[in-house]
Structure formats: C-alpha cells, structure tokens
Amino acid sequence: MQGINKPVMFLFDKNEEFEGVLVSAELWRKIEPIVSPYMEGETTGCAPTQPERPEPMKDWDTLVEYWDFAYPVNYEVTCDECGNSTPNWIEDSPRKFRLLSANLGGLVNFGCTKCQAKITKKHFKDCIESSTTPFCDEKDPKLNAVYG
Ligand SMILES: [Zn+2]
After folding, report:
1. Prediction pTM value
2. Any residues with CB less than 8 A from the CB of 30 and at least 6 apart, and which?
3. Engineering a disulfide at 81: which of 49, 91, 117, 119 sits with its beta carbon 3.0 to 4.6 angstroms away?
4. Percent of the chain with pLDDT over 90
5. What are the sequence ranges of the domains in the chain?
6. Contact yes or no for 20/11 (Cβ under 8 A)
7. For residue range 93-134, what is the model confidence (pLDDT) as tens digits?
8. Residues by chain with Cβ below 5 Å of ion ligand 1
9. Of 128, 114, 103, 129, the residue nearest 79 (C-alpha)
C-alpha cells in the first residue's frame, strides 16, 4: 500500500463510484476496536475491496409476515434502465437484484446488479407502483479525492 499522508482518504473507482475509505495505520489502530463489531463476515486485517451491505432480509420478512395488500406477495422486479428483470428476485442465483431496503409501509428498494439503478416498488392496497432511478454518478466535488 502506498504511503498515506492523510488520516482518512475517500476512495473512488474508475466510474467515480464511492468505494470506501482508506485510513492511516495510526488512525486504524485507534478505530479498529470501534469498527470491528461491524466487520463480522468481512475479511479482517485489511479493508474489503468491495464492501457490500448485507441485504436487510429481516425487513423483507417482516413485510411479508404482515402483508395486508389485496394481492399475493410480489417478487417481480424489472429495471427500466437496462431491461434486467426477474419473476422472482429472491430465487435468482446469482442475484439480479439486491434488496436495499424494505419497510412495513410497503416501500421496497432494489439495486440492479447490472447497471446499479435503483428500483423502487411501492405497494399500495391494490396495486404496485414500480419506478427505476438510473444510477446517478453525480458526486459532491468536495469528496472527490484523487488516489492511485
Ligand atoms: Zn439495470
């Protein structure tokens, strides 16, 4: 690893997608005990190259458990951006869509693994409204640190 002259550096990939944070060894020694509980299942010792948040399956399960819409649980997801689509996102292996969030109100967000668009499914009493938000590469110039 090249020398780090700042305690914290923000890392962006070639698409300027925010990838993570690089901290100096000195800072790491201080914060490791604090962050280690959040690193379960991650590679320890060094920062994972592609940190992926686990899917909040519990939230989805809760939504399904209290499902009171006028139709059966709906597993269809379609990305209007790249045409990626599945009749059952939960059964895809590997996943075409990753669950980003789900709440009891029926608002469910998925991430398209193909183009990174965000698919929002709003469950209403008797219909579902699905919308796709293209992957947005707008970024805060302040965070636009250069590395490499
Ligand atoms: Zn897509």
Report:
1. 0.60
2. none
3. 117
4. 54
5. 8-51, 57-133
6. yes
7. 999 999 999 999 999 999 999 999 999 999 999 999 999 999
8. 79, 81-82, 84, 112, 114-115, 117
9. 114
